[in-house]
Amino acid sequence: MKATIEYSEIQSLVKSKTRREIGLSAIDERTVKAEAKVSVKVPFLGEIEKSVGVNVSVEKIEGNDVHLKYDGGMGTDMIIGGLLTFLSSSPAMKVVEKTQGNGIVVHLDEVKEARKVLDLVELTGIMFQEKCVTVEGRFR
Fold it and tell me: What stretches in the chain show pLDDT beneath 70?
């Protein structure tokens, strides 16, 4: 079984939840690039706007856990690492676990809405395409 989700749908969802616009584009079948514009006020220079991106790759799927690697350059990687460290003392760490290097494990069965689907369907693949992501699974 396959489900296809357009990047535009994901972008709309993110914008409705965070009020932040993001861009998504496939690098290859296993990697997607997520970008957002960030603006910083700098004394004497005013506001500077820059696009910041991170590549996220699906390394493997084990049961209901999705193993990811991220790469956004040294600055972005430090920010993500710091954010994950900050989250380690919150309930969110049940969902997202930092692993060695730039690795993250997403525990999908810790998300109530996902658990309902995962009770019926085993996740077998995630593939990024030009305008969408395809999620594959099979009935349990």
Answer: 87-89
